[in-house]
């Protein structure tokens, strides 16, 4: 049988993400469906949760009327929004003819919409027993008999209509009406998700794999699948892979579909963006977050800003940002903490604001979402999907801004490929049931759908969950993209804003951000074997024998540490009595504050282990002590009128580190550290640089006199 003798029909009244997907899958197999009802108002009733859909069959009936006598022709009818093709028409027909049926319907495990009909159904030894009317194939004259068997209304239930025909034994025999119990062709997914597997086969060249769908219960590979009822999310998941949507050689094939190039768009037509920033909780590293927003590669004269800040803690951060940059944007609307606008309201307002500003693109970014890749906005727009989020993860964690699957009640669940996506083992564009933290929305969605259905407000649901649930109800696809790295998520859980310099305490919770802010820009150069600026024939700066010198912390770190100490303010007396020490006695006292007095000792020890120890191992080879131990960790303050210098002494350490926290000749004059045995002084200390030297025996040393200003140093006696 020629495939031209098979007419493929579907019903779709409007363009939706699901309809696009249906058409894409059809074109993958050169199937050209005839679309019925397009542009018309749906007349089939409330099919989501209620019976209905008779209108579909009416449309089909009308289309088949002139063909009713064509006894050699077949008709394949399927729904559109929740159906995809997985195989060629030839193969569908071949399998159909093997069944001996003249009409073949897909089967499902539920007797719907009239459960009382269950006992009227013939028993089946294997497979699904009940009729589903979402997909069927048959000879036109027989299908015509089915459609004309009885009168029906637009809002009558199409599945009930077909079921009654099937349960009429005489009619069933007459037209050889059968069900595809074992999914030779049709796979209805509702209630059978656990029977479905995505399998992969080596492709012809053996260089990669292609995906296909297998029913492991019936041991078949169905050719048309239907995400009926709640199984639409299963279909969304499967359709990330099939039909040949993703494979390991070409990667994401669907990513190239509909893609646009902003480079080729004339400047006046560049999409207008509403960039909405949300600070709904106290969040570490908001300054960097805002800075990255500003670094986005996108014409600022096409961006309107909307800022919702609920936190007093962040008022200065936002003000600094707007004072510096607001003038570059088309407009800025700010909602401040005093407005007491709840998150739900603010997010709803931002969508309205987008429409008011005639935006083409809505881009929401929450304060935990660091957009590290400055091309993110541009790339997301070019991806040209209704809703798409950049994949963001907490570095090194499985925590991300999307869910791979849903539980029955709409909560978080993991998909089989969740970890592969989070770790970007697989890269692509993934249709998922939940996204948050950062995403773009094409404003055509806001304009074409009932705005009251697209919002963030639902009783007992947080804003993101309400929003995604609304989009799911509208069958709007939400994609998360990890085609490239876009950024990362901040962990805001343990931020203590009662601290001076709260972010200094974030070395455990947000180590990557901590490092970027507080570690010296040239720190990694310390480990570069090709580093040119050598000194004293050593690979490392050695200002005095066995005293090494490294850049380690940023000026920001130094200023923050000084700030922490001065805010605390309880400098020691500089006398021999020191009740902070076990013996209560200090032979060589300094004016200092210990790290444990400001609750920062665990953080300091982490810093020693992570950043100081590798340097120690480079210069004092063979000495290995991991983690380093240190009981004495403190900041020293020298002042001409307080304690200007420190008399010669040994430290109770294997090695000592001494970090200069401020600038000689700017913040103070004089000072430095003199190693007496070598008559060698390090006076031109550099802010953020660390001196590391042995503590005892050879390195008897003194602190030189500060003649003006205040000198701050950070000291640790490592491995006492
Ligand atoms: O002033 C200096 O750089 C030396 C400080 C010192 O040796 C110490 O605090 O033990
Ligand atoms: Fe010392």
UniProtKB/TrEMBL annotation:
Organism superkingdom: Eukaryota
Record key words, sorted: Dioxygenase, Glycoprotein, Iron, Metal-binding, Oxidoreductase, Signal
GO function term, MF aspect, one: L-ascorbic acid binding
Protein name: Fe2OG dioxygenase domain-containing protein
GO terms under cellular component: endoplasmic reticulum
Swiss-Prot/TrEMBL cofactor(s): L-ascorbate
InterPro entries, per database record: Collagen_mod_GT25, GT_PLOD, IPNS-like_FE2OG_OXY, Oxoglu/Fe-dep_dioxygenase_dom, Pro_4_hyd_alph
Protein source organism: Psylliodes chrysocephalus
Limits of the Fe2OG dioxygenase domain: 627-720
